[in-house]
């Protein structure tokens, strides 16, 4: 089955980004394919490469970044949500004259059209909400 | 074409959920999909006319509800019991909506390809 996933919950204080990661790993493990993962609203904070977690806690941002690269997933961060929350790739940092970019490896910044496209091309779309 | 159903469940100005849902609805409409836009629970407050959120530093994003018709979003519903619980009637709303029962909403969800609740 072709699956897409949408995440909206904020990663540092809600469970949804971890649940989505576990779900994606289970889906791939069962032989399904992931067409796209779309991060919307506060979930775009998963794309920050600047999070620092205590040593005895999992760095969920790093875990997602590694998972995406390992499985070569299409992982899209919603541009409107990202800019408001200070998640910038190099291009956006230049465009808005900001001092740095912070988007972690594996993620792309793009628009809501990517989510609609995922709906059209997937057998199931699974949401992990706030 | 797919049928995408959106459930707007949050009050309009305490969080960004209302705008997030509306943006998804409009994006889906631009891609010419069949859209159902359903307001329920505190989400029915999003429909009420006369919001003036300037005083709390918020933008009245829900003014864009008026544009739904232009985008071809004709299937706009409010859950009847959510309206009744809050003593709201169609006369309080800024756009006309169809009232639906929980059973009708269940059938709509069953017939949808993707359901998104925000």
What would your notes on this structure say?
The complex is a heterodimer of chains A (130) and B (118). Chain A is 35% helix and 20% strand. Chain A has helices spanning 16-29, 60-71, 79-84, 90-95, 113-120, and strands at 2-7, 33-39, 75-78, 107-110, 124-128. Chain A is an alpha/beta fold and 130 residues long. The model of chain A has no long low-confidence stretch (mean pLDDT 97). Helices cover 25% and strands 20% of the residues of chain B. By secondary structure, chain B is an alpha/beta fold. In chain B, strands 4-3-2-1-5 form a five-stranded parallel sheet. Chain A binds chain B through residues 6, 8, 40-41, 80-81, 111-113, 115-117, 119-120, 125, 127, 129-130, and chain B through 2, 4, 16-17, 20, 23-24, 27-28, 30-31, 33, 113-114, 116-118.
Concise synopsis of the structure shown:
Helix content of chain A is 35%, strand content 20%. Chain A is α/β, with parallel strands linked by helices and 130 residues long.
Shape of chain A: globular
Biggest sheet strand line-up of chain A: 4-3-2-1-5
State the major sheet of chain A. Answer: 5 strands, parallel
The helix count of chain A comes to 5
Q: Which regions of chain B have little confidence, pLDDT < 50, spanning 5+ residues?
A: none
- Which two protein chains have the largest interface (Cβ within 8 Å of the partner's Cβ), and how many residues from each? A-B, 18 and 17 residues
Percent in strands of chain B: 15-25%
| Number of E-state strands of chain A | 5
Say what oligomer this is.
heterodimer
Q: Give the radius of gyration of chain A.
A: 14 Å
The helicity of chain B comes to 10-25%
First-last Cα distance of chain B? 22 Å
State the order of secondary-structure elements of chain B, H for helix, E for strand. EHEEHEHE
Strand order of the largest sheet of chain B: 4-3-2-1-5
Instruction: Return the structural class of chain B.
Output: alpha/beta
**Which regions of chain A are unreliable across 5 or more consecutive residues at pLDDT < 50?**
none
Gyration radius of chain B, to the nearest Å?
Answer: 13 Å
State the secondary-structure class of chain A: alpha/beta
């Amino acid at each position: 089955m072709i699956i897409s996933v949408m995440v909206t919950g904020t990663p540092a204080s809600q469970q949804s980004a971890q649940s989505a990661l576990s779900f994606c790993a289970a889906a791939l493990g069962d032989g399904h394919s992931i067409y796209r993962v779309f991060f919307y609203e506060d979930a775009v904070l998963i794309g920050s490469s600047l999070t620092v977690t205590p040593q005895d806690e999992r760095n969920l941002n790093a875990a997602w970044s590694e998972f995406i690269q390992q499985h070569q997933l299409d992982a899209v961060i919603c541009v409107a949500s990202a800019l408001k929350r200070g998640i910038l790739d190099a291009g956006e940092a230049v465009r808005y004259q900001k001092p740095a970019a912070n988007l972690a490896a594996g993620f792309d910044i793009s628009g809501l059209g990517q989510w609609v496209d995922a709906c059209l091309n997937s057998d199931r779309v699974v949401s992990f909400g706030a | 074409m797919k049928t995408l159903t959106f459930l707007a469940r949050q009050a309009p100005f305490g969080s960004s959920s209302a705008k997030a849902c509306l943006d998804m609805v409009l994006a889906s409409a631009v891609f010419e999909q069949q859209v159902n836009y359903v307001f329920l629970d505190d989400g029915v407050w999003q429909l009420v006319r006369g919001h003036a959120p300037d005083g709390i530093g918020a933008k009245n994003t829900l003014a864009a509800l008026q544009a739904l018709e232009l985008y071809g979003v004709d299937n706009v519903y409010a859950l009847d019991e959510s309206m009744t619980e809050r003593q709201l009637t169609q006369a309080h709303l800024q756009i006309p909506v169809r009232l639906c029962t929980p059973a009708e909403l269940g059938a709509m969800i069953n017939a949808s390809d993707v359901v998104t609740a925000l």
